[in-house]
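User: quick one
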Amino acid sequence: MAGILDFSPDDRCNAFITACTGAAFGDGALAGIAVAINDNISTAGIQTTCASRILEGYIPPYDAHAVELLKQEGAAIVGKTNMDEFGMGSTTGTSAFGPTRNPIDPERVPGGSSGGSAAAVAAGLVPMALGTDADGSIRCPAAFCGIVGLKPTYGRVSRYGLIAHAGSLEQIGPMARTVEDVSRLISVITRYDPRDSMMLDQPYSHRPSADVSDLKIGIPTEYFGEGVDMRIATTVRDAIDVLEGLGAETTPVSIPSVRYAPAACCVICASEVSSNLARFDGVRYGPAVDTRKPWHEAYREVRQANLGPEARLRIMLGTLTLSAGYAGKYYAKALAARQRITRDFERVFCDVDVIAGPTTPTVAFRPGEKVSPLSIAGTLTAPANLAGIPAISVPCGDVDGLPVGLQVMGRRFEDERVIDVAYAYEQEVRS
Amino acid sequence: MKTIIGLEVHVQLATATKLFCGCSTDYQDDNPNTHCCPTCLGLPGALPCLNKRAVEYGLRVAKALDMKVLEESEFARKNYFYPDLVKAYQITQDDRPLAVEGTIEIEDDQGHEKIVRITRVHLEEDPGRLVHVAGASKYSLVDYNRSGIPLLEIVTEPDMRSPQEARRFLNKLRTILEYLEVFDGDREGGLRVDANISLEGSERVEVKNISSYKGVEKALTFEVTRQRNLLRRGLAVARETRHFMEGRGITTSSRGKEEAHDYRYFPDPDLGPLRVAGWVAGIDLPELPTARRDRFMEQYGVSLNHARTLTGDLRLADFYEEIAGTDPVLAATWVADILLGELNYRTMGIAAVPPGHITELLDLLRAGTITDRAGVQVLREMLDACAEDRPCERPAAIIEREGLSRASGDEFTSLVRAVVAANPQAVEDYRNGKEGALNFLVGQVMKETRGRADPRELRRIVSESIKMGEV
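Assistant: Done. Structure below.
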């Protein structure tokens, strides 16, 4: 039943950077389903910008592994969604192609960095999308826009073709309106790819189960304390009560090291950014360098003119944190914190099966309301990236009409379990 | 004043594909930018995937040099901007290299064995290549065919004491690498050297990017002279990086061009740790040059010098063993002392020489069919044919055509008689005790026979015939 999907979205939220009016599709598990792709995931023949001027006009000659798999299963790649430039931000406001608005309330941000994908799904433009998540970039916009988003275990989805800003933290993951669709999408994109050396051959083939009896849920005190909106804490607690009602057992846990997560994440991100973004020099792709000038000068000009302020800030920061004399103070310390966080999670997972808490400390805010280099949204999401564990955000009510996300984190390579927990909750409140 | 030299040698490993992608490494005769893919072009999103064979090659070298392979080594990013560097970082190894602490045995300037310590070996990717186009509007082109070619960097301790030692070290290293079948010595730019050189008590100078064996000796010899002269004039040697200008045989300061770099090394997040120490036990090493040298002396009874020369090149050693036959000492003399010189004179490789022809030549020499001198003539005839791609005649055919077989019997006697008769003055002189006159007469006969007579035998016959007063 191969064909061409006619796609002309009413994109009032500016969710798309590139929309493909006619998208080819084929047979398979996702036959004919429109899927939007975050614009930092390479798509052969379709402009891929990472929401940055420095990649404007760049058309990859190859598909990311995840995109290849989607096409193999018949999905129609209908467009490339807006994001914070290179994934750095939590508002989709640092995009070179203008901010994305939250479909729930256009005055508010959709979260980020994968805000375009979240908005496209929430606005009903597509049933599912791929986002990417290095410190919460799938889960934060999923929570703000009231949809489901999964950051898979690190090493579960091939990063080949993902234009990562922080490859050691980042994963491609599914975003959809239902847990079932998230499950469908993840089962397609986890097929093994030897080109990503950090990937393990552990494909997801699982149908969500709503059985949570005998499940032990840990409730970390750090996720309900200072900085977290009381009304969100209450809403999420209520959601966990629902799971308890379904037979799950809850127990308070403590992960004290998560307080280092935002700083550690910030330093590791910036360090990797300074290296990852160095290749954008205008020599091979993107806006062309002025070849009449000495290369040093030409590089400087092209990068100054085409990288946004957030990107430049992080490049400078990361250059410092890796520099001789500073690397020990910053980068090495951040790695030590990361190890400690990983160990703390491992310890907690000896006693509980999953950890549950809010995805974000606030609901969607207005542009300009929150500005922090440590990205406020990352405080509750970044720990999962540092520990490499799977984490899902599922809508669990609202505060003043704005969606709240319940975050469920699990052991490494137990993506199935966090999906089951989210599914159990979703099925219970939906019926 | 003691000269102190340490080397960093970059060797292109002879794998079929690049270090982190499946692109072919066999690009020498191909157009620029035809052996490239998203990974070796550093396209956004492409990832490196380590070539297992390159790791095995690295381990082969580590084992041959008796090194300690790290339980866990690590790839790191070396960050710097340059148009030939696609990702603006090179994937290399920093504080956790593949292997550390090895040795290579060389001869010092007195001909004694000495040990050069190897600090470390590590794997890294080669950058692309800039082609500078001169002319009215100067510009540079970039060829990424070389981007991602696997390099093994071999770092020595500062154990060499002269430019000649450095050259011998490189020759030995190259031989070992060829024996290990991890390196193709014929490949242009396959081996590049950075050399650190200082005179005892003064600052160290790094000479970068020397791309030939001869270049290393030349660059270092120049540096020794330059540094000595500075000190002699009461000036200090500056600690700096210099470039070798092959064409002029000098080094020039590259100060200002390269400021002190902070490469901001950090572990490459796209590649996990490398745990391959366990592979070492399973690696079967071939016989290495030193062992082969000793075996040649033992098995074939050849001299140390001949054994060194013959095993100093893998193909030469193989060639020798193929033709050693029933008289290995004769074969060694001919290959090491004569054939090699003739090959160098023609800048030919041993591969072009048909071994069967040499075996036949040796047989003819041993049987006394031709003299040594005629043998050399036959050899030259054959090599010229090979060098010019003409069909190479067999020695017997050349001897037949050129009439080179040893003069003997009546032919001999009549020749001697003729020469003695034609030179009565010399005969008279010899009779009066002038030994030199005999040499003259022998030389005259030699000339007539075009080397077909054995000079010693000839001398005896001429002398006897004069004494016997046959004339």
